[in-house]
Amino acid sequence: MTSTICDSSAVDQYLLELSNREIERTRRLKIENTRRETPLQILRIIGIGFAIALVLWALGSAFKNANSFHKISEILGSSQNNYQEHYSSSKDIRETTDQGSSLDQLIDVDALLDSSSIEISPEPGTSIFENPSIIEEYPEGIDEHEIVRNYVIFDDVEFDGQVITSVMTGRNYPDVDSEVDHSWCYVTNNTSSSGSVKLNLIGIRNGERTDYLIDEAEAIRFGASLEEIKSAKEQCTI
Amino acid sequence: MHYLKLKYLLVLVISGFSLNTLSDGRDIFNEASPGVVYISTDKGTASGVIISNRGHIITNWHAINKADQNSIQAILHYSYNFKEFEDHLFDIEIIKVDEISDLALIKIISPPEYLKVIKISKVIPAIGSEAHAIGHPHGEVWTYTKGYISQHRDDYEWRYENDDLQHAANVYQIQTPISEGSSGGPLLNRFGNLIGINTFGSKDTESLNFAVDVSQLIKFLASN
Known about the structure:
heterodimer, A: alpha+beta, five-stranded antiparallel sheet, 7 helices, B: alpha+beta, Thrombin, subunit H, globular
């Protein structure tokens, strides 16, 4: 029996080399595939995340909107008396209720205006604020004492200043039969670039007179000279 | 495959809903701005809200109180860029005022037929609800802003700078930006309906503004 020993190491080496090459080729393909697919994977994850976020947001919004309103408990009738009865306290008009409806609840403004208003048309050239007699002109059957609560009369004295053109005096009457409860005098600068600027000069409340402090800084803020403001103050009719 | 189709359909539907919600501000402005008027007087300018087809307009008392009534005029939104605004300029009469709550009801003497009315909601929005405003801050006509109801303040008292008169009313504290010229303009809910009248704000603090609320407005309209 003769045994022959073959040296196959070269073949083994060759096969090992082939195997290593396949492994390397596979690894390269994996890397290429990963590189190619990564953006799509990221997009997919973002898409799913976005969809989940949208669903949660839509559900949250629906829930929030369903609970976002308080509702006035009383339905406004066309009768003003009913209104005053129901709405005498502002705290009573709110009630926490769920508002599942997607519709708002509206007021019949025309009915409200018809039931309440006395449309007063002052004479041309007059202001409702300046002429209390206008307020007293109500249709027959309506007691003006129940309607007129208070009013203000303004005196407008022309003033020839660089900035000040008039000196206004206001007098507040708590009701038609009462005396003045407070009055005040002021001037207005309508030439200011930031809009109309008002400066109070004198106030009288319950007989107590207050002469407001007017110094150089106040004059600069108002936009007129201190001398002009002091001259204007002398025109106050209170 | 069916699962994938359903998933993408769901995403599309939800996206559609979200786009619809995002356009709320635009819808509200487009719908409500024709109901906002520019009020011009010899003493200044302000905003107002048309509340009836008969030409009734709600605004602030302080917006018109010093003005000669003959000088008060309302300009409708059709003169958006103030071209040919004379065609949309209307004389006004004062119907009633309440200086304490700082509200005034005025009326276009000869109202046109094409008035756009802003409806008044009777629902008081909860704190945190959206609050939209349209007005003319510093003469920047028909400006839209959006914010939130920050708080309800019942019987809130305030006084204007250099003014002796104490005002008091139920108001919303709002985060919606308003400024001089916005006075008398509408505060609107998410449906574009009126929930308050933009009235005053703090000069020292940002986003601390106030609007007379709808309960006060209804009381005023119902009063004689």
